[in-house]
Amino acid sequence: MSTIIRIGTRDSELALWQANTVKDQLEKIGYTTQLIAVKSEGDLRLDQPLYELGITGIFTKTLDVALLNGSIDIAVHSFKDVPTLLPKGIVQSAVLKRANPGDLLVHKGIDFLNNKGIIATGSLRRKAQWLHRYPEHDVVDLRGNVNTRLQKLKDSHWNGAIFATAGLERIHLRPDDALYLDWMIPAPAQGAMMIATKEDNSFAIEATGQLNHPETEICTQIERDFLQTLEGGCTAPIGAIATIKQEVLSFEGALFALNGSEKVAITEDTNIKDVKGFGAACANIVLEKGGRTLMQAIRKEMN
Q1: Do residues 138 and 251 lie in contact, with contact meaning Cβ atoms separated by under 8 Å?
Q2: What is the pLDDT of residue 60?
Q3: CA dist list (Å): 82 to 39, 182, 193
Q4: How far apart are CA 178 and CA 162, in angstroms?
Q5: Are the beta carbons of 80 and 187 closer than 8 angstroms?
Q6: Rounded to two decimals, what is the model's pTM?
Q7: Which of 35-39, 97-101, 103-107, 204-208 has the lowest mean pLDDT?
Q8: Per residue in 94-120, pLDDT tens?
Q9: Would you name the residues annotated as active-site residues?
Q10: Looking at 53-62, 145-154, 228-237, 249-258, which range is the least confident one?
């Protein structure tokens, strides 16, 4: 097996920033690396909303194939884009320390917030939460990488668009007047980077394991367990965020109707020693509180 770790990544500016961050950290601890950039189907098909494409892991599928056929050794992902069930033969080998997990509104002035307005986003979660708070607004679909979406906003008649804070900050594109949406619950694992490799690539697993951030790994696992238990294979507007302070893990999660008219939420704390199964347990509480009926309505509306 080669001692050069071939790093697979999407070829957007943000994805390359993430891959180069992993590259730099691996080289800092003595490994030799090589970047290999590929286009994902999610980058190529910009004419449909993400949820309509019906592909599991639309931003990760191409890299999964490259891992399995041996053309790359590791793949670097925005963790929120990774399906909760990894393909057979692929494992999570590291989760890097999370950046800011929240969302930002990039806007052309915020006077519209208390009136009529048009907001752009390709995310069901962001759309549902925005309409829950601003039901009088219109939300339009917005696709493409960060740079493309910023340009589309600039060229449009929209009032604003919603972005992940970490994405804009990592490539130094956060506008000074961007509004931090402290009320919007992030996507599970948002702000975190995940490294995947083949389960039989012990060299890559050992190397990348040294980059793992245990606290981020625990929090993102709980958020993704919450997501997986709620979704049951159906894409839905779900937010989840876990944080650790001293020995206490705090969790907030919610499921929304597609149009934002309903919300079923949970806020729970647990001791860090009792986190096993906690995300799924929180999801089951949401299901019992009305989430199961809401998920059935979402499935019916999506089909």
Answers
A1: no
A2: 72
A3: 16, 24, 10
A4: 10
A5: yes
A6: 0.91
A7: 35-39
A8: 999 999 999 999 999 999 999 999 999
A9: 81
A10: 53-62
State the sign of the Cα–Cα–Cα–Cα dihedral 144, 145, 150, 155: negative
Give the side-chain half-sphere CA count within 13 A for 98: 26
Q: Map tokens 């594109």 to a residue.
A: 173
Residue 51: pLDDT band by 50, 70, 90 thresholds? Answer: very low
Long-range contacts of 260-265 (CB under 8 A, 24+ apart): 260/127, 260/128, 260/129, 260/130, 260/131, 260/132, 260/133, 260/135, 261/131, 261/132, 261/135, 262/290, 262/294, 263/132, 264/289, 264/290, 264/291, 264/294
> How far, in Å, are 117, 134, 263 from residue 138 at the CA level?
6, 9, 19
Query: Can you tell me the distance from the alpha carbon of 170 to that of 101, in angstroms, rounded to the nearest whole number?
Result: 12
Residue 303 has pLDDT above 90, yes or no: no
